[in-house]
Description:
The complex is a heterodimer.
Chain A: E1 3-10, H1 17-20, H2 31-35, H3 46-49, E2 55-58, H4 70-77, E3 82-85, H5 90-99, E4 102-105, H6 109-112, E5 118-122, E6 127-132, E7 135-140, H7 146-154, H8 157-165
Parallel strand pairs in A: 1-2, 2-3, 3-4
Antiparallel strand pairs in A: 1-5, 5-6, 6-7
Helix pairs in contact in A: 7-8
Chain B: H1 3-10, E1 22-26, E2 29-33, H2 37-46, E3 58-61, H3 71-87, E4 91-92, H4 101-107, E5 116-119, E6 133-136, H5 139-148, E7 150-154, E8 158-164, H6 173-184, E9 193-197, H7 206-214, E10 223-226, H8 230-237, E11 257-262, E12 269-271, E13 279-281, E14 292-296, H9 297-300, H10 303-313, E15 323-327, H11 331-339, H12 342-348, E16 351-353, E17 374-377, E18 393-396, H13 399-408
Parallel strand pairs in B: 2-3, 2-5, 3-4, 5-6, 8-9, 8-11, 9-10, 14-15, 14-17, 15-16, 17-18
Antiparallel strand pairs in B: 1-7, 12-13
Amino acid sequence: MMKFKGKIWKFGDNIDTDAIIPARYLITSDPAFLAAHCMEDVDPEFLKKICPGDIIVAGENFGCGSSREHAPIAIKAAGISCVIAKSFARIFYRNSFNMGLAIFESRELWNIVSDGKEIEVDGEEGSISITDSDFVRFLRIHPIPSFMEELIKDGGLMRHLSKKKE
Amino acid sequence: MTITEKILCKHTDLEEVHPGMLINAKVDIALGNDITAPIAINEFRKAGGTRVFDRDKVVLVPDHFTPNKDIDSAQQCKVVREFAQEQGLTHYYEVGEAGIEHALLPEQGIVLPGDLVIGADSHTCTYGALGAFATGVGSTDLAAAMLTGEVWFRVPETIKIVLYGRMQKWVSGKDIILYIIGRIGVDGALYKAMEFIGEAVGHLGMADRLTIANMVIEAGAKNGIFIPDAITEAYVRERAKRSYTNFTSDSDALYADMIDIDVSTIEPQVAFPHIPSNVRGISQAGNVKIDQVLIGSCTNGRIEDLRVAAGILRGRKVAPYVRLIIMPATQEIYKMALREGLMEIFIDARGVISPPSCGACLGGHMGVLADGERAVSTTNRNFVGRMGHPGSEVYLASPAVAAASAVLGRVAGPGELPGIGG
């Protein structure tokens, strides 16, 4: 369940939550509505070029700004399977784990891939593989704390709490 | 331990906590608004929740798209209102008694020193000014807290920020925090606590401290915090309706980093588009023509801010073709400003008064920018499209700079106005 394969779409440093989902659309929390406006102020073509399962690769401090959970909701509902950034802003980081969007930290990936490149991510193994003709390159993902791993395995914070109560 | 570590520890069964530890902590206040609470309420119900853990500790303030901006926003507010009614929440604030959450909660004595506060709003960090641990979380965290009264945290490392020296005229808490963000960057304190100490803190009133703590999230911090002193005590004593604890950092507490700042060297600051760290001193602002000025918000909508702005606008007029929007942060502040005659000064200067709301700050309503327009705003974010069209620009500054800019029609400090000393 923690394996992902898709084309990557690159963004720079400090992609804020207003860029991920502008505040003018926070009139609802409907995932389909939010997904329809995901990233539109940064890249108006974004939704046209992505396919289900694709991966966002970003620089430093991805998701900075507001606490809106609408940001990871929009990304997930747009069909993005996971986000790999050099670093994440802290509220976006915990929101993603809490609501079940897979995110990983890698400092190297951004520097060696370009838009449209297909990669494979194995969250359990903690690896990213990039195939170039007959050559496969592996990168390590920055390990996540075991508590956070539990959250993802249980399908988010609320399900984790329900499971603990049982 | 630091004050942050002590407050976190006090809310667990542990004897001691250290940076990096994952803990479950009990919350004193869990806050939501009309944007974030509907998702939390939905999650709460999905998890089988029927009663919140404590009806005195869950606080709901519809303040973002209120007074209701459109039908969808009205629906969201309705969800919040009905939940508050059903749960019999002590602290639910309807539009006529409310205001912007982060100005309202300290003003009403709902958050107090030593509290552990979470809010589904990133500027929840504001309450650190009172010596509380306060941090922004998402809607799912709020749902979990409403259900269990607890929330998970990774204990943050602390950066100690020592402020010393005397502030120059027209320099405020806003200029200090903008200067710091400009220096350390928007992720300069990522995952960390920012603790503000030093002799200059003694010259900062609560309004300035609230402004500083409000914007620590703009440096990526988990929380910002001031150690309670006589100024805190004077502010809290008349508002508190329950007991509270003043914590302090131990002399042998460990810090991840220490930054010394001589505040006497800081001039009024402006954050240029499109990131809060793109900060310049006002003397380096150049000639940037503007279309709108917004004075208000959870950052700078307190009575002290309005007094500074009114002092500059008294007997002056806003430049032609420039819109000035004044937005008192709470109804209480609105009343004080009326009583003190500030509103008359604003209206005579050709400003318009908005009801308390977050609307204009995040491009929601009541002050949205068109393509190519520029605003000087006393708010906290200037990302692309933050206040409207993605082609608009936001310049963040203090109420003094904002008021002077409104008169001059360009980004400018009060020192440039005839009859006002620099």
